[in-house]
Write a structure and sequence with these properties.
- With 264 residues, the chain is an alpha+beta fold.
- It is built from ten helices and eight strands.
- It has helices at residues 2-28, 35-43, 56-65, 78-89, 124-128, 146-150, 175-179, 204-210, 220-224, 249-253; strands spanning 99-103, 156-159, 162-165, 185-189, 193-196, 230-233, 236-239, 259-262.
């Protein structure tokens, strides 16, 4: 009996000694917390999307506290987040332009077709590895929902073979942009402007055979725009948001109707 009590006492004593050593070590070797970084982290939305260019919210908060980053880089947080961070840092708040994700493709099953029947993993990235994807247009949305699965805000959904973004829910975190294997989702300013809803760079004759709403690079939109906001490069038009005045000239001039009014 005494031997059992002795063993228990020895184990308990060792445990207490180790606990004491660890307590002392935690005090001596403690890394002081940066209260400013902690406050900034509380102001951030916690999405950890990486849209700011840092390794999540904690990485961005640490960089802000050390003066190595600007306050307006958090797209999901928006203007309110920027104001809160600016107050913590004691700097003036810059005007942060709201942004939103857009899918630059309108090639639904009403306008284009699949070139083959697909029965593999329901993933755009997986389908792309098999013969370059399943859609007739090699630049268009494949509609298998990698972007939808990546969105934490339920802002993007696939309908009739093509993805659509709900601007009222989108936080411009860019996770859908990273998830799209064809790179046809773009973050744009949330403002009234014209937007080219196509990413095809084939010649016009080829595009017409693949999709009846695809850009054919005819340059009618470019010629119609007096502000120089529309340019055609590699048979596909692009609207520069900063130059666009939303006059609608390019929308009216487009024979394929792939340029639309974008409403904030």
């Amino acid at each position: 009996m005494n031997s059992i009590l002795l063993a228990v006492g020895i184990v308990a004593g060792i445990g207490l000694l180790i606990g004491l050593i660890l307590s002392i070590a935690s005090i001596i070797m403690a890394v002081p917390k940066d209260e400013k970084a902690e406050a900034i982290l509380e102001a951030l939305p916690g999405a950890n999307c990486g849209a700011c260019g840092f390794s999540g919210c904690s990485g961005y908060a640490d960089a802000l506290a050390k003066g190595k980053a600007e306050p307006g880089l958090c797209a999901p947080g928006g203007l309110n987040c920027t104001k809160a961070i600016s107050e913590i840092l004691g700097v003036e708040t810059d005007n942060v332009e709201p942004k939103v994700a857009v899918v630059k493709c309108m090639g639904s099953l009403d306008h284009t077709t699949y070139k083959a029947e697909y029965s593999g993993i329901m993933s755009c990235a997986a389908a792309l590895r098999i013969g370059g994807g399943l859609t007739a247009c090699t630049y268009g949305c494949m509609g298998l929902g990698d972007c939808e699965a990546a969105c934490p805000y339920d802002a993007i959904h696939v309908n009739n073979g093509v993805a659509y973004v709900d601007g009222s829910k989108c936080r411009a975190c860019s996770l859908c942009v990273k998830a799209c294997p064809r790179g046809i989702i773009e973050i744009v300013p949330k403002k009234d402007m014209a937007l080219v809803r196509c990413s095809n760079h084939d010649k016009g004759g080829v595009t017409r055979k693949l999709c009846d709403i695809g850009c054919i690079g005819c340059k009618k939109c470019e010629k119609a725009c007096e502000q120089g906001a529309v340019k055609v490069t590699d048979f596909c038009a692009y609207v520069t948001p900063d130059l666009c005045t939303n006059c609608g000239a390019c929308v009216e001039a487009c024979p394929q109707h792939c340029i639309t009014f974008f409403k904030a």
